[in-house]
Write a structure and sequence with these properties.
The protein is an alpha/beta fold. Helices cover 40% and strands 18% of the residues. Bound molecules: ligand C6P.
Length: 412
């Protein structure tokens, strides 16, 4: 890994990622699908290997040496990841991914602690992971759902925010950065407005924590969910951060080993927070890998990663806008967006675009991106999406441009 001046030393960074060295369909791989999952540096792979080679045992149980080592690996990872998001460690619950984190909040907070008639507010650009869990909670607890709208330019319409936050609203759950439009929402303003109305805020940070500095203390949110696999970490390590006092009030999500204090045949009492929400054997290796990913990203610097992605995004937007017959969705202002860019090629289905790009070695995502209501709002069935990360290069953006020329040649 390395950095030079204010620029990232991308060749050195790329050398850390074994998978980026491979070819696809006879071309060097151009991986523009990091919003779906990022690639992993050798440092993360080594941390996982080291855990299984040297310390593997079950956690929080052992009287033996490696059991204690495994517990240390897991608990040190909790502290490391908390530091990455500038959050108190006692609110850090390890889960599998963002989806599980939001389901935990919807099940243990909304379904259990809200009352019939209370309202949960979302936006119409949420990923299904920040929509379906609330629908389930609403059905079971008699809650209602309200929605903030998306303007034609891909920004969030805040004009009816006050109305939406008024009683009976008790909770707002919102994505920090859209996985389709790249839109970064003005979270501080929204959180302040919500708290002024005693409305709690849950942040889906799946697309922001990997790409920009995120401070839970500065945001002052009540819940924050993200996935390690989108930030150079392994699949299977996700995080729910929640205010410890809320976790104290919430009943457990899953029952079983590790989350109890005392168990009789008829009754159980719960372990302390956050262990109360971590039933069963956790994925310790994934937690170790996520801690290594935090080390990796922090050594480069999240500010610098963000600044570099902004340059790449400017290049990507300019290229797509200059390409005949290409429609780009989402904000064009770089201050209000990140590096996930959705587009369509006139007259060509997004899946055909993705397939032809793949033949040229360029990996993008195509489809509804788990955002069917947003697709409806945009009036499209699907989009193609290119998304950049710290290891992408300007040459790769140009390779996408060349491959799009191939799409147009085939369909002309
Ligand atoms: N979006 C994408 O290609 P999981 O699958 O639980 O790690 O993350 C779910 C999720 C939640 N919120 C947002 C904003 C997301 O982008 C995602 C995952 C991927 O856009 C896979 S569908």
């Amino acid at each position: 890994m390395g950095v030079a001046g204010t620029q990232l030393d991308v060749p050195t960074i790329r050398a850390d990622f074994p998978l980026l060295q491979r070819t696809v369909n006879g071309h060097p791989l151009v991986y523009l699908d990091s919003a779906a999952t990022s690639q992993k540096p050798q440092q993360v792979l080594d941390a996982i290997d080291d855990y299984y080679s040297e310390h593997n045992a079950n956690v929080h149980r052992g009287v033996h040496t490696i059991g204690n080592e495994a517990t240390d690996v897991f608990e040190n990872a909790r502290q490391r990841v908390a530091r990455f998001i500038d959050a108190p460690t006692d609110g850090m619950v390890f889960v599998r991914n963002t989806t599980e984190a939001i389901n935990l909040v919807a099940s243990s907070y909304a379904r259990e602690l809200l009352s019939k008639g209370d309202r949960v507010v979302l936006t119409e650009m949420e990923h299904h992971s920040n929509l379906v869990p609330w629908q389930l909670a609403a059905q079971r607890a008699g809650l209602t759902l309200g929605f903030m709208h998306v303007r034609d330019d891909g920004t969030l319409d805040l004009s009816d925010l006050d109305e939406l936050l008024a009683p009976p609203t008790r909770l707002l759950s919102i994505g920090h950065q859209s996985n389709v439009l790249g839109t970064v929402v003005p979270l501080r303003t929204i959180i302040d407005a919500a708290h002024a109305r005693d409305v709690l805020v849950c942040v889906d940070a799946a697309q922001s924590v990997p790409h920009m500095p995120v401070s839970v203390r500065e945001l002052d949110c009540d819940f924050l969910a993200f996935s390690g696999h989108k930030m150079c970490g392994p699949m299977g390590a996700g995080v729910l951060w929640a205010r410890p006092e809320l976790l104290e009030r919430m009943p457990p999500f899953l029952g079983g080993g590790s989350m109890i204090l005392r168990v009789s045949l008829e009754h159980s009492t719960w372990s302390t927070v956050p262990h109360k929400f971590e039933a069963g054997t956790p994925d310790v290796a994934a937690a170790a890998g996520l801690a290594a990913a935090c080390d990796y990203l922090d050594a480069i610097g999240m500010e610098r990663i963000h600044a570099y992605e902004r340059e790449l995004t400017a290049h990507l937007l300019a290229l797509l806008e200059e390409t005949d017959g290409v429609d780009v969705y989402g904000p064009h202002d770089l201050d209000g967006r990140g590096g996930a860019v959705s587009f369509n090629v006139a007259g060509v289905h997004a899946h055909d675009v993705g397939t032809i790009l793949d033949r040229e070695g360029v990996a993008v995502r195509a489809g509804h991106h788990c955002c069917q209501p947003l697709m409806k709002r945009l009036g499209v069935a699907a989009t193609a999406r290119a998304s950049v990360y710290l290891y992408n290069t300007h040459e790769e953006v140009d390779a996408l441009g060349a491959a799009l020329g191939e799409v147009q040649r085939i369909f002309s």
